[in-house]
Write a structure and sequence with these properties.
The longest helix is centred in the C-terminal third of the chain and has 10 residues. The protein has a 3-stranded mixed β-sheet with strand order 2-1-3. The protein is globular and about 30 Å long. It has one domain. It is an alpha+beta fold.
């Protein structure tokens, strides 16, 4: 996730650098694991970056 910074909205936790992708812990963890199941739950400029990467 070099181009996006993951931030959990339900916990005090962030990871990475770049545009923010914010969402519940479950959505963030799934995205970081390369799974797009909860990508729609992410918000922020980095969410689009991650959603594009997770779409086959």
């Amino acid at each position: 996730m070099a181009l996006a910074r993951a931030e959990r909205s339900d916990l005090d936790w962030t990871h990475g650098r770049g545009a923010e992708a914010r969402g519940p812990a479950e959505a963030v963890l799934l995205a970081m694991a390369g799974r797009g199941a909860a990508a729609a739950d992410l918000t922020g400029p980095g969410a689009r970056i991650l959603q594009e990467r997770l779409t086959p």
